[in-house]
Amino acid sequence: MTDIALWQYVTFAGSAFAAGIVDAIVGGGGLLQLPVLLGSLDVGGGVATPLGVNKAVTAIGNTASIAQFWRRNPDSRVDPRILIGPGLIAVVSASVGALFVSNVPIQTLRPIIIVCLLAALVNTLRGTGKGKEQDRSEQSSRGRHAEIRLAAVSTVLGLYDGFVGPGTGTFLLLSHRRLLRRTLTDSLATTKIIQCGMNIGGAAVLLSQGVFVWHLILLMGACSMGGASIGARIALNGKDQLIKRVLVAAVLATVVKLIYDQISSW
Asked: Which of the 8 DSSP states describes residue 43?
């Protein structure tokens, strides 16, 4: 059993619960969860441990999100070619990115995380927009050209997800919608599965380099699933603007803390 204080368990569980809610509504739940883990989880294994725990917990939350999505959208389509092609590329790239980041000191990683957090926050708040759903004939494959471009984008996003990660789901969804010209529902069906695979691949690599705190992962995973369930209900009630404001405040506070920690380490 690793040396984690009770107050830390409460903090980690709370961050996972909040991240689950936010992720189900606007995406970007990792913007809340990852900084808490980086700032408070010190059980050895370097930066690989908090990053690995974050991805493992997010993967658990993804499964709950996928299950809820299928219940609410039974007619949504998953394109096997996208899962096997660009999807598999994204998973492999995420694993490679995770392998690289596990050897990066936290002092080097912190400024990168600050920039990525702010960029992901801006992208999340801009929103994907439900847009105008197209006819099935217009949703069909955009051809090999579009799939090649999507494969290239998946490589970059996979590396980013493995290296840092916050906001990947939003970036991935935007890429699929814009390149393949599919509806939001069909794009979500595919990208949710791909994102879950990316998190599993990244978590496996990172935790093999760090410390496998299974009890913390299970606790946070359960809280993440609970948060995702509540988040789905909030989304249906149209209260996402309140959550967006909370997300902005939390991320900005986190960025200030990370900047303070970085200055203190000099």
From this structure: S
